[in-house]
Amino acid sequence: MQIYLIRHGETEWNLERRYQGSQDISLSQTGREQLRPARLRPERVYVSRMKRARETAELLFPGVPQVVVPDLQEMNFGVFEGRNYIEMEHDPEYRAWVDGNCEGKCPGGESQEEFTERTVRAVSGLLTACRERGEDPVVIVAHGGTEMSLLSRCGRPEKPYYSWLTGNGKGYLLDDADWWDQGILRVTGKIDLTKKG
Question: Is 158 known to be catalytic?
Answer without folding.
Answer: no
